[in-house]
Amino acid sequence: xxxxxxxxxxxxxxxxxxxxxxxxxxxxxxxxxxxxxxxxxxxxxxxxxxxxxxxxxxxxxxxxxxxxxxxxxxxxxxxxxxxxxxxxxxxxxxxxxxxxxxxxxxxxxxxxxxxxxxxxxxxxxxxxxxxxxxxxxxxxxxxxxxxxxxxxxxxxxxxxxxxxxxxxxxxxxxxxxxxxxxxxxxxxxxxxxxxxxxxxxxxxxxxxxxxxxxxxxxxxxxxxxxxxxxxxxxxxxxxxxxxxxxxxxxxxxxxxxxxxxxxxxxxxxxxxxxxxxxxxxxxxxxxxxxxxxxxxxxxxxxxx
Length: 304
Fold this sequence. Notes:
By secondary structure, the protein is mainly α. It has two domains: about 100 residues, Orthogonal Bundle (DNA polymerase, domain 1); about 180 residues, Orthogonal Bundle (hpI Integrase, Chain A), CATH 1.10.443.10. It has a three-stranded antiparallel sheet with strand order 1-2-3. Strand 2 and strand 3 form a beta hairpin. It starts with a helix and ends in a 5-residue tail after the last helix.
């Protein structure tokens, strides 16, 4: 039964890493409760598994986000079994994701300045494994993308659709077409300006070497396509993940908002406009301190 489900995931076109993750999560459930895929499972069994993950005897408790990911994998599996009449009962119907006091922090992850510096080092030093890829071209493009996401707060689809004509290097501003076709203009900082100038200069050289670059109206292209797709950008960024933090494109937008709040002394209206948030309550979430911020605050208490 589990093998049929895995075949279904392949047919659905899921990424290989996602399928592996789903398989491992589901196998963990069966192994830890000593049951088989076809056995009758109740919500009580699921709750028992959750309790074991929250209160392990020989290892550290799993993070809430990890437990919820496992539950989501199991939820998908049992939904498929009932839909395809493999089983009659879905034990996940009564199970909801766990919540914690730090739920907003877990959902909104950003990079510290030290982590950003470490990332730049990783980008520079990481070897290129794909055959036929120009290491310098990839380094310059990927670095520019990271800077643009971090210093302008673009969404990944906004970056993928960003055209050369959207950049005004003289007036130092970017025209961004966001959600709902809403257009906003973001100033280009001196730091970002230098990065973009380097990339555009290098890109101009590639125009003479690659036909698909010459035909591309977009700021960023892939190895074979005139446009760097959203999925391509996501995969590229995930490949640079830090040892203890999986990177996503949206994490850099979170970083932009967090850093901008600090730079503007918590002026959430300025940050709202720069980030293109329709509702200021979305921006206000970034006012929540990280665990590191809270730790620093506790350590700053007077010592007697």
